[in-house]
Amino acid sequence: MTKTTVRPENPTIETLDAASHGGGRADLVVRGGARLRHDPRRVVTDLFVPGEELPGSVSRAAMVFERIMALDDDTVDRAYTRTLADFSARHRDLEETFAEHSETVGHRIAAGAQVSDQRRLLIGAYFTREYAIEAAALTNPSMIEHPDQSGLAPGCLRFVLSARAIGEGHLSCVEFRTGVIGPDGAVALDEPSRFANAGRSRAPRYDRRFFENGLAEAGDDNEVQSYFLHRLPAQFTDADLEHVLAELPAGLMARNGAHAAIESIRLVAACQYVLEFPQDTDLSERVLRPISPTDSRGMEDARFVRFTDEGGVAGYRATYNAFDGFTTAPQLIETADLRTFRISPLLGPAARNKGMALFPRLVGGVHMALSRWDRESTSVATSTDGRVWGDAQPLRRPELSWDLVQRGNCGSPIETPEGWLVLTHGVGPMRVYGIGAMLLDLEDPRKVVGSLNGPLLTPDAEERDGYVPNVVYSCGAIRHGENLVIPYGFSDVGIGFATVRLPDLIDCMRIEDTA
Predict the structure, then answer these.
(1) 65 and 137: one domain?
(2) Is 261 helix (H, G, I), strand (E, B) or coil?
(3) How far is Cα 169 from Cα 132, in angstroms, rounded to an integer?
(4) Are residues 398 and 426 in the same domain?
(5) CB of 378 closer than 8 Å to CB of 408
(6) Contact assessment for residue 264 and residue 216, using Cβ atoms and an 8 Å cutoff
(7) In degrees, to the nearest 5, what angle opens at C-alpha 89 toward C-alphas 84 and 91?
(8) Of the candidates 426, 436, 441, which has an alpha carbon nearest to the alpha carbon of residue 393?
(9) Which of 31, 41, 248, 271 has the fewest CB atoms within 10 Å around its CB?
(10) Residue 18 pLDDT > 80, yes or no?
(11) Does 303 lie in the same domain as 387?
């Protein structure tokens, strides 16, 4: 058994002292290098309204406000000084957060009341909480090339790792880590910042055509929405939206379903937002947290890819599973710099359920994606704009003993001279998850030209026990020279890394008859 050591400066980063081979194709896969564990010390601040912890509950803010206002000045001073001493080292700009939250609930202060700056900040502290973003798990990673490759030794590649962090209430968000891959495929992780930052959200500029598609997807077609769409420009703002709604004719407002139609319009808007982080934050501090109605109960399993458009401009895109507590649907993340992120829904028949993964470029002039719209098979879909996806064509249905329950992808396809390499996941007896591989035709990815008969990677003895046992799962590997580096979550307790030589993997694939 491989010995594991823990870095004394960071017990959440482990290092395997020797490479190991473990479950799956031991002749192809080498586990080794760094491992990540979840860290309950990583916390963000959040607005806290007493009494509203559960849906449908009643706010107790008025009573709390009354008690704060009744405190004498000496008690206020002691309470605030103690709070700063206990928490200021855990967060950047904590007093700025207190001031913001105090302003948010400041309508509770009686008109004309004289309130000192310190009491106002203490009010903010009472209406602030810490949320441990990875208290339960850190898992299901994807890897992409870092935008900054300066200062590296020859043969090295700097990467960005995204991961699904699971906190209190099983609420998922997206986190980032960075590191370097050596010439031999070995992974070294950077120490993450001790801070975490949830950023600031704002409304984007909206696209009228997207609104039209979103309302059509919901099955809505009425005069209120027709009036709304007809009076908006091709691109519009929140202010434009509210202006048009305010001008709705009285006759339309009196119709049955008018208020429901307006709510549908606002829902389509609320599912689109921009999340921005300060320039001076480290990438490992940035946390994408649920904000919209569609992802209110979690942003799960982001599959990041470096996407290059027809003009050769590169940026980053990702799909993630948005969970609202009842349904799951894929949504899109777009970013040029990993500091400003635009989030919006994906639409169309193929954009359903879990596990969409985008190709890194256009193929034949169209956007392409892998889809598991039917919940159990791997399919490929196309789109003219990368947002509305038509019917998906099955590539592989569950057929082998290790993937009879379901089959899906493990991230975006990777381009090789031999074809598009797709890592897959399969579920077999006792809900054991494994990672497999198949090869798609470069010109027509709807054709499978090769595949492994069995799993490439399965849980080994040290990986099978955890929050969700018997699972290895990846959301995206990265190619570095002739090495394929696969980050994978194991049993929702940690993240490991495996290296495969690409020529060996492709040689082992069963070449299929494509005639």
Answers:
(1) no
(2) helix
(3) 10
(4) yes
(5) yes
(6) no
(7) 90
(8) 441
(9) 41
(10) no
(11) yes
Question: Residue-wise over 313-325: b if at least 16 C-beta within 10 A, else e?
Answer: eeebbbbbbbbbe
d(CA 463, CA 457) in angstroms, rounded, equals: 11
Say how many Å lie between the first and final Cα of the chain, rounded. Answer: 46
Instruction: Report the DSSP beta bridge partners of residue 230.
Output: none
For position 110, what pLDDT does the model report?
81
In single-letter form, the type of residue at position 313 comes to V
97: which DSSP letter? H
Do 397 and 484 belong to one domain? yes
Please state the pTM of the whole predicted model.
Answer: 0.92
pLDDT at 163: 98
Taking CA atoms, 236 is separated from 210, 245, 346, in Å, by: 11, 13, 19
Q: Is residue 142, in this structure, part of any structural domain at all? A: yes
Burial 242-251 (b: 16+ CB within 10 A, else e): eebbeebeee
pLDDT in tens, 452-481: 989 999 999 989 999 899 999 999 999 999
Provide the residue range defining the domain that includes 348: 4-41+133-148+155-190+273-511
Share of the chain above pLDDT 70, in %: 94
pLDDT tens-digit series, residues 401-454: 999 999 999 999 999 999 999 999 999 999 999 999 999 999 999 999 999 989
